[in-house]
Specification:
GO cellular component, one term: nucleoplasm
Pfam family, one: Pescadillo_N
Radius of gyration: 34 Å
Distance between the termini: 86 Å
Protein name: Pescadillo homolog
Shape: flat
GO molecular function: ribonucleoprotein complex binding; RNA binding
Strand order of the largest sheet: 9-8-10-11
Strand content: 5-15%
Subcellular location: Nucleus, Nucleolus; Nucleus, Nucleoplasm
């Protein structure tokens, strides 16, 4: 008989620990525990069976190993030091000892979370994958009003790191999509092979809600600001720009926007990329606010970088194939060794010949196509100069236009910034307006609404400006993040998406009519030879064709009904769910179309 195992000593009972037990183990208050878990990236866990876990079933649980991991965190000592500091300050305030209070304030304990960033993101690509939430939080707090709950220093830090990130996206040409929504402006950028999406609120007066726990949000923000500083440093180093960029006070006072940061080339060469690192094209550093770089030089640099990448890929693939061939040679039987090795060597020669630059590799062709598309995106507005009216979102348009290689100016910016220009400049090609009654007398420029810029970016091409003129009813601004399936309603279109089946049906019907017409013509010739009247032949032919169609439709319906009857109960339930969802989608589309028709009548 084996040894009996005492209940609660193994399994889920020891793998999980309740929050109250964790507080007693760490000797922390609940706010400090929450703060520490947020900074360390430790979150509650849900046991599969709460009855097998010690404690109340309504408790919040954590992994025991995570709580043990927190026992060795240096921030624990800092939290305890700060708790002691608060007690001493309160005691001195109770005694009205101002000298002691002033002396204690100078000795206030402080801490940083730099080591936590390195612990949570050992590789730089890990931080890029987790950048979406950080950017959304930073762009939210940068427009927050300064108040007692949100200090001015926090807002300034969010403004600084977010502006630095936007300047990097401009310099690297990483912007891919933009979408204007009710919540704010959605952006998507592709940085070192990672797709990053975030939302920036509109620059309106924000009302701070009273029912939000800002202590939790500020704890997240504390970590995100530090993390974003590390990310910006690495990104700037990658394109050989000095970090942190200096702030030009004169441009900042003149409302220069993103151009108030002075981007200077760093000393030395850009950091070397390892064999497994993501290769990115180095972009020449432009002057602040000037996006008219030499396109020929950029194109030549892109070609050289593309050749270098293709060569490195070919070498890596060559090495992998050689290693695989060597392993296969060791593991094969003695009888078939010579034949297989000879076959492997032949395949290797062919593969290497292709990998050295042949267009037969789909991966290389796809990489070249993406590189070409990226280059086109970066130079979409390179030949144009924009001027922004005061009623349009200046920072968003500046960011979008400069990311596509265009030049932009607005207001009285030209009076304090050397490379800016005034509204009466004859070289301006596009003026962005957002109100009717604008003077459009200048014949050598296009007057468009802001949506034209974002639609061009999403379409990756220059759209016709006739539909975007001042006072015009704009076309639907469709989200570039949504893919419409068959049967979905597409705004601004009278045709339901996925109407390919209907078109196919029409084509099939036309083909049937063509076949029927041929049969009809043959029957008419036959009847004419037999001396039968044409009207009788036509009538009989139409009746027979209709009878054939009815028989075919009845046969198809019977076969479908029989197939449903032969289904198992599981498959029949699944079929009913599919048909129910399709019917619900049809009803939803019909309601949207009715709503659109009613709105059009008004």
């Amino acid at each position: 008989m084996g040894r009996l195992i005492k209940k609660g000593t193994r399994g889920a009972a020891t793998n999980f620990i309740s929050r109250n037990q964790a507080l007693r183990k760490l000797q922390l208050s609940l706010p400090d525990f929450r703060r520490l878990c947020i900074l360390k990236g430790i979150y509650p866990r849900e046991p599969s069976n709460k009855k097998s876990v010690k404690g109340n079933t309504n408790s919040t649980y954590y992994y025991t190993k995570d709580i043990k991991y927190l026992l060795h965190e240096p921030l624990l000592l800092k939290f305890r030091e700060f708790k002691t500091f608060v007690k001493r300050v309160n005691k001195a305030l109770g005694k009205r000892d101002d000298d002691t209070v002033e002396r204690l304030e100078d000795q206030k304990p402080d801490y940083t979370v730099d080591h936590l960033v390195k612990e949570r993101y050992p590789a730089f690509v890990d931080s890029l994958r987790d950048l979406d939430d950080a950017l959304c939080m930073l762009f939210l707090f940068r427009v927050m009003p300064r108040s007692g709950r949100v200090k001015a220093s926090i807002v300034n830090d969010c403004e600084r790191v977010s502006r630095e990130f936007l300047n990097y996206v401009i310099e690297s040409g990483s912007l891919r999509k933009c979408f204007l929504s009710i919540k704010g402006i959605y952006y998507q950028a592709e940085i070192m092979g990672q797709t990053i999406t975030w939302i920036a609120p509109y620059n309106f007066n924000q009302k701070v809600p009273d029912d939000v726990d800002f202590r939790v949000m500020l704890t997240f923000l504390e970590f995100y600001v530090t993390m974003m500083g590390f990310v910006n440093y690495k990104l700037y180093q990658h394109i050989n720009i000095r970090y942190p960029p200096a702030l030009d006070v004169s441009k900042e006072s003149a409302d220069a926007g993103l151009g108030s940061l002075l981007l200077e080339q760093a000393e030395g060469k850009p950091e070397k990329e390892g064999e497994n690192d993501v290769v990115s094209v180095s972009v020449s550093v432009k002057e602040s606010g000037d996006a008219s770089a030499d396109q020929n030089g950029d194109t030549e640099a892109m070609k050289q970088d593309s050749k270098r990448r293709i060569a490195s890929i070919g070498k890596a693939l060559n090495r992998i194939v050689k290693e695989q061939a060597a392993e296969d040679k060791k593991t094969t039987n003695t009888a078939s060794t010579d034949a297989e090795v000879q076959d492997d060597s032949t395949q290797l020669d062919n593969f290497v010949a292709v990998a050295d630059g042949s267009d037969e590799i789909d991966g290389l062709e796809e990489a070249r196509a993406q590189e070409k598309q990226t280059q086109l995106m970066r130079s979409l507005f390179s030949k144009y100069k924009f001027f922004l009216n005061r009623e349009v979102p200046t920072e968003s348009l500046e960011f979008a236009i400069r990311s596509m290689g265009g030049r932009v100016s607005w207001g009285r910016l030209y009076e304090s910034v050397s490379n800016a220009y005034a509204e009466d400049d004859d070289t301006i090609t596009h003026q962005i307006v957002d109100r009717p009654g604008v003077d459009t007398t200048k014949y050598n420029r296009e007057y468009v609404q802001p949506q034209w810029v974002y639609d061009c970016i999403n379409a990756k091409a220059l759209l016709n400006t006739e539909k975007y003129g001042p006072g015009c009813v704009l076309p639907p601004h469709l989200s570039p993040f949504v893919e419409y399936d068959e049967g979905d309603y597409v705004p601004g279109s009278d045709v339901v998406s996925g109407s390919t089946a209907e078109v196919q049906g029409e084509v099939a019907g036309d083909e049937d009519e063509d076949v029927d017409s041929e049969e009809k013509y043959a029957q008419e010739l036959k009847a004419e030879g037999e001396g039968v009247a044409f009207s009788n032949t036509n009538k009989e032919t139409g009746t027979s064709q209709k009878r054939k169609r009815d028989v075919a439709a009845d046969t198809a319906a019977e076969e479908k009904e029989l197939a449903i009857m032969m289904m198992s109960k599981k498959h029949k339930n699944l079929y009913n769910k599919i048909m129910y969802s399709k019917e619900q989608k049809k009803q939803k589309v019909a309601k949207l179309q009715e709503k659109k028709a009613a709105t059009a009548k008004k």
